[in-house]
Amino acid sequence: MREQTIGRWLDDLASGAPAPGGGAVAAMHAAMGAGLVSMVCELTIGRPRYAQHEPTMREVLAQAGECRQRAIDLAEADALAFTGVTDAYRLPKATEEERTARSAAIQAALAQAADVPLRTAVLAAEILELARKIRPGANVNVLSDVAVAAVSARAAMQAAAVNVAVNRASMTDVVARARLETELARISDEVAAAEKFIEELA
């Protein structure tokens, strides 16, 4: 997807193809949030009024660029993970042996499909923290973009949580389900923190 135009990617999203889907959208929300953090840093660096904040801005600029690339990687990984699930469901099930193998493959694929949005939510929380970090020294003319970066990070977390929950619902491993339930609670806390930060910027 790195080589696609936005228009082409949106066409793919709107098509009848199962991927890209919601997990990729979650990751792209994170990518856009990271992009806005970078933009705010770029529009703050080099301006005398904000000279004392320049070291922070330069540090965050590098981190936000890395986050953006990771988000794109996760969007691609989500499509692959979803394909893994659909492929597992298509496995033969005529014999008991085939049914056992198919069930194991489905569970492994679901675990992978839940892991990708989970990583997206973790990344989105990192991006939210970067937005918090630059808020005190950001160019006042682009403070609204700090807020939108936080909104994008929040959307990424919420969308990722939906995808984690959907995959968790079909998992049979009790331990794995419990772990994901804990992670979903953590994401909920991060979303609440994001909402508080956004309100402070409004």
UniProtKB/TrEMBL annotation:
<dbReference type="InterPro" id="IPR007044">
    <property type="entry name" value="Cyclodeamin/CycHdrlase"/>
</dbReference>
<feature type="domain" description="Cyclodeaminase/cyclohydrolase">
    <location>
        <begin position="5"/>
        <end position="185"/>
    </location>
</feature>
<dbReference type="InterPro" id="IPR036178">
    <property type="entry name" value="Formintransfe-cycloase-like_sf"/>
</dbReference>
<dbReference type="Pfam" id="PF04961">
    <property type="entry name" value="FTCD_C"/>
</dbReference>
<protein>
    <submittedName>
        <fullName>Cyclodeaminase/cyclohydrolase family protein</fullName>
    </submittedName>
</protein>
